[in-house]
Design a protein that fits this description.
The chain is an alpha+beta fold. Helix content is 21%, strand content 29%. A hairpin with a 2-residue loop joins strand 2 and strand 3. Helix 1 runs antiparallel to helix 2. It binds fructose -6-phosphate and magnesium ion (MG) (2 copies).
């Protein structure tokens, strides 16, 4: 057995610049200073999408390692201090607690990790999104690993033809279920077609059992009677040699799908693939954005990134996303642009209902 490398991607929004649109360059530098060259790590890359800082780290300490999570936590805390000094917007918003308890999960930040034995060559793509929720990965992951119209290899590559296994999480009941595809596709779609509740956490190659993808799907926390903590996800995908080719991994984003999030986390909008120089949501705090950074791993070293969605071949996707965004904006406060009552992050329903309660007439008791 070769040595195992862990790839950890940990993200948090610790304060926006300006509003919820981006990360202040000094804060990003602070994060880089804390992470880069740290003796726990083999290598690291720090970036942002919209108002979220993303720490990409490689090491040999496995998943859910206390020291690695502590390092990320301390980095976010130091960034928060700076964000507070600069009076950045919503400083510290993702750090749900002041005290770190050994595992960053459930404390606000999002985490995607995988422990792998590096192959002869190890191309990976890290997707990072802003103004949406982890379920946003369901449709692209399904396309990459189960849809022959997206992934030609499922049909014509003998190393992929037996398919992939999907681990799906029920975010509300905090349980998981595994589907073997292609046989289980119809059953799986019953669940993953409801991305507000069921999210694909991990994907495995059926022949070898090797992990192919891991997302930052975290259990939702029930707070003040509502489920919170479901935004701005990251996703790690390994490519090539029996896994989907790089182009098959990127292909689902060529046709922007509708995701939940956008303004006030309460609207449906197209997920727009962008290069890192276009990753700051603007119109109506959106539309939701996704970046895709590619790395070649070599003994844990991160060679890259390649900024895939900066490419001209995604221009059409951006145009389509803008058209969809324009159309949906025309619906204003009406569903399906505004999310269903149960899914909105912001609502005035309880207050308005209370205010108007005497004006409601129970039609079961009235003759008119
Ligand atoms: C959505 C998001 C923004 C804010 C909106 C209102 O994820 O971050 O759309 O919800 O800008 O922000 P507040 O309530 O902080 O003024
Ligand atoms: Mg924010
Ligand atoms: Mg964000």
């Amino acid at each position: 057995m070769g040595k195992k490398i862990t790839l950890s991607v940990i993200k948090a929004d610790i304060g926006g610049f300006v509003g919820h649109s981006s990360v202040h360059p000094d804060v990003l530098e602070k994060a880089r200073g804390m992470i880069s060259g740290n003796s726990l790590l083999i290598d690291s890359y720090v970036t942002h999408v919209g108002d979220d800082i993303n720490l990409v780290m490689t090491h040999e300490h496995g998943r859910n390692n206390g020291e690695i999570h502590q390092l990320a936590w301390d980095t976010f805390l130091a960034c928060t201090e700076m964000a507070k000094r600069l009076k950045l917007y919503g400083a510290g918003q993702d750090l749900l607690s002041d005290a770190f308890s050994g595992n960053i999960k459930g404390m606000g930040p999002g985490v995607a990790e995988m422990e792998i034995e590096e192959r002869k060559s190890e191309p990976v793509v890290i997707f990072m999104a802003d103004k949406t929720e982890p379920g946003a990965w369901n449709l692209p992951l399904y396309k990459m690993f189960a849809d022959p119209f997206n992934t030609a290899g499922l049909v014509i590559d003998p190393n992929m033809h037996n398919g992939f296994t999907f681990e799906v999480r029920d975010m509300i009941k905090n349980r998981k279920v595994t589907f073997s595809c292609p046989e289980d596709i119809y059953d799986m779609l019953v669940f993953i077609g409801a991305p507000g509740r069921f999210c694909i956490k991990r994907v495995f190659h059926r022949d070898t059992g090797n992990i192919c993808a891991s997302s930052s799907t975290q259990r939702l926390n029930l707070m003040a009677g509502r489920y919170v903590g479901k935004d701005d996800p990251v996703l790690i995908v390994r490519c090539q040699s029996g896994f989907p080719a790089l182009g098959e991994v990127l292909e689902p984003f060529a046709n922007p799908h509708l995701v939940s999030g956008w303004m006030r986390g309460s609207h449906s909008g197209p997920l727009m693939p962008v290069g890192t120089n276009q990753c700051n949501p603007t119109r109506f705090d959106g539309p939701p954005r996704v970046i895709a950074l590619g790395f070649q791993l070599a003994d844990g070293k991160l060679h890259g990134p390649q900024d895939f969605f900066a490419d001209i071949s995604f221009d059409k996707a951006r145009e389509t996303a803008n058209e969809i965004a324009n159309y949906l904006r025309g619906l204003g406060p009406f569903e399906p642009h505004r999310l269903h009552l149960d899914e909105m992050e912001y609502t005035t329903m309880p207050q308005v209902s209370e205010k108007l309660k005497s004006r409601f007439i129970d039609l079961r008791k009235s003759s008119s």
